[in-house]
Amino acid sequence: MTTTTNLAHHATLAELQPGDDIPELRVSPISRRTLAIYAGASGDHHPLHIDSDYAREAGLGDVFAHGMLSAAYLGRLVTNWAGQDRLRSLKMRFTGITHLRDAPHCTGRVSERFEENGEARLRVEMVCANQNGEQKIVGEAIVAIA
After folding, report:
1. Bridge partners of residue 89, in order along the sequence
2. CA 96 to CA 6: how far, in whole Å?
3. Other CB atoms within 10 Å distance of the CB of residue 21
4. Which residue in 6, 17, 38, 110 has a CA-CA distance of 20 to 30 Å to 116?
5. Residue 127 belongs to a domain with what CATH number?
6. What integer pLDDT is reported at residue 14 of this predicted model?
7. Cα angle, residue 130 at apex, residues 145 and 57 outer, rounded to 5°
8. pLDDT digits (tens, 9 = 90+) for 111-145
9. Among 126, 99, 107, which residue's Cα sits nearest to residue 34?
């Protein structure tokens, strides 16, 4: 499910200003099936993500999501909104663990308009949090306006 916040009054990317939100991305809660599918697709079969016994022996309550799965959700946030062809850079920092049954909620806000290499661009600050607002990843995207 994707919804918009205060972006509704803007017709184009060119009209966005610092402080404007981009459409959010809400994802279904992380399940064991999600982790198994991601492990197969990514080739990352680390037992902390797929083996409950291993995770418990390591002192964790259970398996948890791959960090790059949450990173992919932030990538989807930006590309759903602006398209892949406008994405110029994407930076992320992991700030927390996404646990089973966490429902990722990704948001972004324009922080700057600028020009680089003769191209008008937007800097977008992003967050992937769970349903309780606990941050899991923070990031930044640079998007071409035109």
Report:
1. 142
2. 27
3. 17
4. 6
5. 3.10.129.10
6. 85
7. 130
8. 999 999 999 999 999 999 999 999 999 999 999 99
9. 99
Residue 4 lies in a domain: no
In this prediction, residue 94 carries a pLDDT of 97
Q: Residue 3 has what pLDDT?
A: 37
H-only helix segments in 3-145? 32-42, 47-50, 52-57, 67-82
Decide: 73 and 79 in contact? Cβ < 8 Å: no
Packing angle, helices 32-42 and 67-82, rounded to 10: 80
Q: pLDDT of 59-85, one tens digit each?
A: 999 999 999 999 999 999 999 999 999
Q: How far is CA 73 from CA 15, 78, 128, in A?
A: 25, 9, 8
The two structure tokens encoding residue 88: 């110029």
Q: What is the dihedral of CA 36, 96, 19, 88, to 10 degrees?
A: -60
